[in-house]
Amino acid sequence: MNACAIAAAVRRGQVSALAVAECAIAACGADSHVAVTRVLAERARDAAAKVDATIAAGGDPGPLAGVPYGVKDLFDVAGLPTTAGSAFRREAEPAPQDASAIRRLADAGAVLVATLNMDEFAYGFATINSSYGTTRNPHDPSRLAGGSSGGSAAIVASGALSFSLGSDTNGSIRVPASLCGLYGLKPAHASLPLDGTFAFAHSFDDIGPFATNLGDLALIWEVLLGRAVADDGAADPIRVARLGGRFRQNADPAQLAAIDAAAPDAPLVELPDIAKARSAAFLMTAYEGGHLHRDTLARDAMAYDPAVRDRLLAGALLPDALYEHAVRWRGEFNARLRARFARFDVLLAPATPCFAPSIADPRIEIDGALSPARADLGIHTQPITFTGLPSLCVPLKRAGQLPLGLQIIGMPGCEARMLRFAVMLEEKGLTGVTAPIAGSTFGAHVGELT
């Protein structure tokens, strides 16, 4: 059942928030996809009881009244260590308060039920975690869910929760949304609150929601943003461009066909220096991540997941001058990009180069050669992150097939048109969430209660 429907039922008194929370607690406790790291049962019951008490007193608990959700395990949860997917942080000092995003959702009536699996310190596109396990894709448990917010995607795709929060530094929301067949939003850089989240690379870090429908996603976005996402040009046609060049390479034919069907008359345009942009993003991410962890690496490098440790060590050794050059070039690149694409409202591109690879052989084909999925599933998302633009992953309609997604990339000030265009794609029958969500245990139980 979707978030808006749950909230409406709770506010009307058709079902109690506590009964909904119990369903979600049970569903997360029965997680078979290695998506959940902690079930916060008592916290969820307390929060749900407060929602019910507010309603009983004639008050308004908020637009997400009683809706259960989960967060990637890098959000601060009061009283718990923020592990960021790392075993050695299980004994870290407990967070003194909730992250800002969690507080905003609580003020809207949402009920936090679980923390969710991720690549250690968010460094990867696969959610292969040496401490917590590899998250499995609900559409095919022998395949990856994507990462680094893989637990956040898998728990929603499995139907155990209506929505979740993840983080996106180079594609860590959009990649698992594509592989798990969900809507996933990377907002305009720094537009949503990051305080109380464990950092990876400050130049690119953002948070955002996973949802099963656009109505839920828009509502959650507005709650996190603290204001309505208004479309001042609602009566105007949406000016669309299809991204060409590297974005037409390493893409599934189904993605290209959907892009062309979505906007058959839209011009095919190229981002300038796209390969250089991705290289610069890799460099800046490695440098910032390596320097963030430099002191801890010096004390106890062997405590890290080996696959993460080596990348962080390499980043910590990058020269300052090289990083500063990449930062300056990013400014020049983005100025040229904004000028070149000022006449468009949205850009269309693939979200991932392929559907979910197998866990047994986590490699994908890039430019005709096999490459580690952990590093290269973000080939189409990373250059967009470099621009700071908002990007919404939308799932293609692929009943009976493994999920794939597209990116709808918004230009500055055009976020609402990005959402409006996503609705248009749904109305054309090109996008939308498909099973396994329809058969979820959580949704069925909540439906029985109402």
UniProtKB/TrEMBL annotation:
Q: Which SUPFAM superfamilies match?
A: Amidase signature (AS) enzymes
Keywords, ordered alphabetically: Hydrolase
| The Amidase domain, residue ranges | 33-238, 306-419
Q: Which Pfam families match?
A: Amidase
- InterPro entries attached to this UniProt entry: Amidase, Amidase_dom, AS_sf, Carboxybiuret_hydro_AtzE
The domain of life for this entry's organism is: Bacteria
One of the entry's Gene Ontology molecular-function terms is:
hydrolase activity
Q: What is this protein called?
A: AtzE family amidohydrolase
What organism does the UniProt record list as the source?
A: Novosphingobium olei
